[in-house]
Write a structure and sequence with these properties.
0% strand
Length: 98
């Protein structure tokens, strides 16, 4: 019998494989290259459309915070959770769906 997820649907093949890398579980639009590309595009468009340096600088600051959160803080927390679960001998953390 096929393994079922909590909602009763069959598990995807990737659901059986847990990895210390959060990026293996994310869709293409949530990969580091897409996050960086989107941030660069947003800052460039803010300058090209408005040409107001302080508004583009504020946009760049917001993008930098977004990058820090999603490219550094969240992956580090995920790796720590993974490491802690392995050391405790408990189940590996479930994949992050959102």
């Amino acid at each position: 019998m096929a393994d079922l997820e909590a909602n009763g649907s069959p598990q995807s093949p990737a659901a059986d494989h847990r990895s210390p890398s959060i990026w293996e579980q994310k869709p293409w639009w949530c990969q580091p290259w897409s996050i960086l590309g989107t941030g660069i595009t947003v800052v460039a468009l803010s300058w090209l459309a408005l040409q107001i340096w302080w508004l583009s600088a504020a946009t760049a600051l917001a993008v930098a915070a977004w990058w820090w959160l999603f490219l550094l803080a969240v992956p580090a927390a995920y790796r720590q959770q993974f490491k802690t679960a392995l050391q405790a001998g408990s189940e590996i953390p479930p994949e992050n769906k959102g």
